[in-house]
Structures are given as C-alpha cells and as structure tokens.
TrEMBL record:
Membership in a protein family: Belongs to the immunoglobulin superfamily. SIGLEC (sialic acid binding Ig-like lectin) family.
Bilayer disposition of the protein: Single-pass membrane protein
Record's protein name: Ig-like domain-containing protein
Keyword Transmembrane found: yes
Main subcellular localisation: membrane
Every Ig-like domain range: 155-252
Listed Gene3D superfamilies: Immunoglobulins
MF GO annotations: carbohydrate binding; sialic acid binding
Coiled-coil features, chain-numbered ranges: none
CC annotations in GO: plasma membrane
Length: 272
C-alpha cells in the first residue's frame, strides 16, 4: 500500500476513541460515550470524517441541538465560513475552535473553551462542499453527548520547606489547561492566633505558560519571608474562572523557627 493511501492521523486517533458510522460513502468517527467536563475548563470533541471521492469538502459546521429534534441553522455554534459567523449562537462566539484548521485533513475535532453548564447537550457535525461543480452538504446523523457537571478539580500548590527569616516562594497552578480566558488567582491567609498575621513585603506574580497549541498553564507565585507569627497558619489559593465558578486549595504552614520566637509570640514557654 502506498503512503498516499494511508488514513490521516486524525482518523487513526478517532478510531481509538469511537466507532465509524457511515451513510453511503459519508462516514464519521466520534466518541460513542458521553464526554464529561467541568465548568470553566474546556472539552475536546474528537472527530474525523470521510466523503465520496467526487465530493470536495469546503466548510465545516457544528450544531448544538436537542437529542430528539433536527438541528437547524439557528443551532449552529461553529462555522469555518466567515460569512456565516454572524448567524452563530452568541453564547458560543469565540469559544469554539478546530484542532486542525486544514479542512483537507478531514479532522472535524473541536475544542470548546470556558465551559458553562448550559453547554451540556448533543453536538452534531455537517460538512459543506462541492460534488463535481454543484454546491452540496451532508449532515452526519451520529451525535456526541457532552455533560458539563459540577466542578471537582482543585488547584495544585507547591510548598517548599519553610525556614524563619529565609525568603521563599509558593506556587499555585490553576487546573484550567485549555481555557481561552485566564482565570483569576488570589491568595488568602488565616492565622493560628486570634488575629490573622499580616504578610509584610509579600509579592505576587501571575504567569501564563503555553504548553502546546491548545493548552496553557496559569499560575501565581507568592514570595515572602516566613516569620514565627506565620507558623501553623493556613494559606488558601482560590481560582475564579470567567463564569465566576471558583475552586480552592488550603495548606498549613510549618515553619522551622527559633523556639524563643514562638514563645514570645504566643506567650507560652516550657523551657527548662
């Protein structure tokens, strides 16, 4: 078999995730299982397709519609034809993109970013093009179910060894690896004493790091000098996404410190 006859990588990728569904020579491969995702993050709907040899794909279209009803033009959430984008559902504007923009690769996989619970539903694909010289399109019957449920992921916090008087940096990474809108990251302190300790001279830095073409890492660092007053206090990293969904993680600080400093602060000493 010549190399030109080998299936595209997108087809091989989708064969692992789903089963091919054909109507005549129009075939689509999508996941047979429901795809679950979380608000504020993103979801990828893997998809590949083939058409008759006399059909030339021109534009790719995605719908979101009810399971037992036909999709209409008012249900379009993504269209590669720029002239048709004004008819897209406004709530999906700027949130849907192709993983591979080259229509000739027959990869219809899309990514939906900044997810909302209202994005739950059934998604259906259509290809528009030309059969010989006649404009034509085909809507594939197979639909993909997406369920956007409650948020479960938490931020990841990196906590080094803490020593009194030695500057240190804490790092908090948000779980939103593929959202288009950077999340907000904030730090909150709760002290072990009656009054929360004040972190004098602390510095926070927000950073976006591109990992791949479709993923980013969002993190914040907090640099400060540990003191005896901060021993056994709690620090919380809170993530707020574009839809106001929040998630947080809390850690307890154990600071290696001079025992005399602790005695002075808490007014308790057992030194013999």
């Amino acid at each position: 078999v010549g190399l030109s006859r080998l299936p595209p990588l997108s087809s091989i990728f989708c064969d692992i995730l789903g089963q091919q569904h054909c109507v005549g020579e129009y075939c689509i491969t999508v996941s047979n299982d429901e795809i679950t995702a979380e608000p504020g993050l993103c979801v990828v709907i893997p998809c590949s397709f083939t058409t008759p040899s006399n059909f030339k794909p021109q534009h790719l279209v995605w719908f979101k519609c009810k399971s037992n009803k036909r999709c209409f033009n008012s249900d379009v959430i993504f269209h590669t034809n720029t002239n048709a984008k004004k008819t897209l559902e406004s709530e999906f504007m700027g949130r849907v993109s192709l993983l591979d923009p080259d229509v000739n690769h027959l990869n219809c996989s899309i990514r939906i970013s900044d997810l909302r619970e209202s994005d739950s539903g059934f998604y259906q694909f259509r290809v528009n093009g030309y059969k010989y010289t006649v404009s034509e399109g085909f809507t594939f019957n197979k639909r993909t179910s997406v369920n956007v449920g409650g948020f479960r992921q938490k931020p990841t916090m990196t906590l080094p060894d803490l020593t009194e008087g030695h500057q240190t940096t804490l790092t908090c990474s948000a779980p939103a690896l593929c959202s288009t809108s950077p999340p907000g990251i904030s730090w909150m302190w709760r002290g072990a004493a009656e009054k929360d300790p004040l972190i004098n001279g602390s510095i926070t830095v927000f950073k976006n790091e591109t990992l791949t073409a479709v993923t980013q890492r969002h993190n914040s660092t907090l640099t400060f000098i540990p003191t005896a007053e901060l021993h056994n206090s709690n620090i919380t990293c809170r993530i707020r996404f574009s839809d106001n969904t929040t998630t947080e993680e809390t850690v307890n600080l154990h600071i290696l410190t001079n025992i005399l400093s602790i005695c002075i602060f808490f007014k308790k000493c057992n030194i013999f």
